[in-house]
């Protein structure tokens, strides 16, 4: 499916074709988007989503690119980046905080801590955006982000906005019912606490989390979700797969929960390594590793 030739000049100007996605992803690899748009206003966002719906095109939203792997063949349909939308700074109102989906998760955490609001500080240092974090119900320290969500505003296919209360969003372990929807913004219900104490806790967690990452800052990804039984890094190490390699892609030898894309790496190599690790872990432990990466 394609956009019609008679697409208005106003909307056509917002859409690029065969846009390389690799530079927008942490892994730095992958094919192009058939159609790509990076709207700079809410009206532009509504227009391109509505136009894609009218054309019968699937729509995907790209956040920070930290947990996306794009196949070499690329992505059909329309990929939208929210990075250029205004108002990325979270707004605080009493004990609630609202952030646009494209806001970096760490930005929202720092803002909440500075306002003396607790409930997000344990997520400091986790890559990604608010939208991706809520859709995937990201968790750390046994607490997930869904537990402090008050409401979620989603963009409908016709360009209208719809508000979902927390009770309407099905949160479970690293999942939510928001998958496939376009999240526009999220409002959190947080707990007033001492800002200085929250800052100390946040800084301690930041140092600890940062020390467990490989040196490669951008060409890394965490392909698997921690199972309930043990951290995935320990599980992979226990079956002797630390440092496993497929072409120019490897699991970090010291921190095997991370996958590293070396120069010359391809998406196909990533997929082969992921499948090999899953097969061996299942064979040796009976645990079926679930993917943290979205495969496009």
From TrEMBL:
Keyword Phosphoprotein recorded: no
Any single Pfam family the record assigns to this protein: FAD_binding_4
Active site, per annotation: 174
Pathway assigned in UniProt: Cell wall biogenesis; peptidoglycan biosynthesis
Family listed: Belongs to the MurB family.
Domain FAD-binding PCMH-type: 28-193
Protein's recorded name: UDP-N-acetylenolpyruvoylglucosamine reductase
Gene Ontology biological process terms, A to Z: cell division; cell wall organization; peptidoglycan biosynthetic process; regulation of cell shape
Domain of life, per lineage: Bacteria
Location within or outside the cell: Cytoplasm
Database matches in HAMAP family: MurB
Entry keyword annotation includes Ligase: no
